[in-house]
Sequence to fold (283 residues):
Amino acid sequence: MSDSLPVVLVHGFWHGSWCWSPVAEQLAARGIQSVAVDLEGHGLRGPAPRARWARPFDAEAFATEPSPVASVTASSAAADLADRIRAIGGGRPCLVVAHSAGGVVATALAELAPELVGGLVYVAALAPVNGMSAWSYVASPEAAGEKLSPLLVADPAVIGAARIDFHDPDRRDQLKEVFYGDVDDRTADAAISMLTPDGPAGIPGEELTVTAARYGSIPHSYVTCTQDYAIAPTLQQRFIKEIDAVSASPTVVTELESSHSPFLSQPAVLAEVIAEAATARHG
Fold:
């Protein structure tokens, strides 16, 4: 589809560009150009605490070591992403697809540089638009039922990151339920092995306010996941309502019967949603 927007795929906390590989293949099959990026402080750009690799493993040291990505904020990650989109799109706007906590960065990006964003697709994402931090939403009544918070091994305000021990064999079933409930075991195990321990607390901790003239001028879509234990479906619906309050046009909503990670469990279905948005929003 030569008349489609280039697509930039943005991962969430603890993940990296690798998680979008199945979707990128599906987009390529549809003639859609896409690039998956590693956000600042993540993936190949996300150093881990030294205690993660120490042997014997010291759980107390792992829970108390200051995070090497503590300086990353939503604004710094958005500015970094803007620079990369300028290069990827060659100055053209791109369709930005953001999963989970990557939605915070995408929201900040859309307000910072709306000329770079031809459309924004949230996938089970945090999308704070009214001056509240994403942490505030996670503590709201709409977040009831999430099972992610108990996985954290430390206070993010103390170490500067939301830290999880993904190597703990006793937590494997919990991790699969929260992130990959409907993903086959082999793929889920491979994905868990690639997760990095620290999500920079400065991303969900920053209070973001957007404007109708900048953020609100961009077409928005939201893919809800009804079996999500990381970001509760009721919280996803709250974000949609708040986006609609500032957006010039209603949010296009697609509901998937999936866990938090449809890019692994339903890549073809998700790719089709993205392809439609990339084509509809061209020009």
